[in-house]
Amino acid sequence: MARHVDILQHPETAIAEASATLADGLPIGLPTETVYGLAADATNPAAITRIYETKGRPRFNPLICHMSDLAMAERYAIFDPISRKLAEAFWPGPLTLVLPLRPGSDIHPLATAGLDTVGIRVPQGFAGELIRAFGRPLAAPSANTSGKISATSADHVHDDLGERISLILDAGASVVGVESTIVKVEEGEMRLLRPGGLAAEEIERVAGQPLKRKNGASPAIEAPGMLASHYAPGAAVRLDATAVSPGEALIRFGRPDIAGAENAAIVLDLSPSGDLAEAAANLFDFMKRADGSGAAIIAFSSIPDEGLGEAINDRLRRAAAPRE
């Protein structure tokens, strides 16, 4: 069973225990501002294998490699001018850049799923401090069973993976609440591979050019979070609900009038005031609470597809997708 360490109360203990566990090639539950990650040494193939085994994650699905700062990232990847501009503007923060691997990079091919690119992020707060102390990048997908709801608290990690890992660091609830935005620059143009905790409009403002979205069929897997079915609770998910049947769970946004809400198994509002940042922070926790209500179906009211709403709707569409 995993040991919990409160990093707010015991930061030095957390650094020491986490570094020792990582050095042993074992993954840990690591808080970041986006979601909790299942982190392990990105240069150690045995450690990376344990991430895939612990999550039950397909090995063709690459992992984001987390760095302490831009200087560390430059040792492992090659930056074009646009990617560098975005890194300087938004790191540390909820932005992942997919970049060409630098020749001779120590990041193991298991972490990149054999691709010649790597997704890199510099997280805010404690995670960055730990990486700096450890001295090597950490591969860290979300700390949950593959395809299921992402963890935004230490309790979420414990409930899902607590019997499979030895250490969970606890920093309270994740502030952002959804995974990072993933961007790839090719031939001077930016592509949005996954909407996330940094709004596309902010990226476009800094870069001075539009983010291109995919059209038609999904491309090959280039980054995490691109599988059609992902972030899924045990219950089925129904979107754009204007009414609910008795016994369904209801998750709404902005106090809409939903017919039959009084007979729902549980009613949760992502943000009564209509704040998309608050909604993103609550999303995965509310999905877990609704899933725990015993309802067979979770109905979601409509959410604006702008700003962080783009990331929220991306997660909901994948949660509602047919499951194999």
UniProtKB/TrEMBL annotation:
One of its GO terms (molecular function) is L-threonylcarbamoyladenylate synthase. Keywords: ATP-binding, Cytoplasm, Nucleotide-binding, Nucleotidyltransferase, Transferase, tRNA processing. ATP binds at R57, N61, T117, S150, R194, Y231. Its EC number is 2.7.7.87. InterPro entries: DHBP_synth_RibB-like_a/b_dom, Sua5-like_dom, Sua5/YwlC_C, Sua5_C, T(6)A37_SUA5, TC-AMP_synthase_SUA5. It comes from the Bacteria. Pfam families: Sua5_C, Sua5_yciO_yrdC. It is found in: Cytoplasm. GO terms for biological process: regulation of translational fidelity; tRNA processing. One of its GO terms (cellular component) is cytoplasm. It catalyses: L-threonine + hydrogencarbonate + ATP = L-threonylcarbamoyladenylate + diphosphate + H2O. L-threonine binds at T34, H66, R121, A140, S142, S180. Residues 12-198 form the YrdC-like domain. Required for the formation of a threonylcarbamoyl group on adenosine at position 37 (t(6)A37) in tRNAs that read codons beginning with adenine. PANTHER family: SUA5, THREONYLCARBAMOYL-AMP SYNTHASE. Belongs to the SUA5 family. NCBIfam families: L-threonylcarbamoyladenylate synthase. This is Threonylcarbamoyl-AMP synthase. It comes from Rhizobium jaguaris.
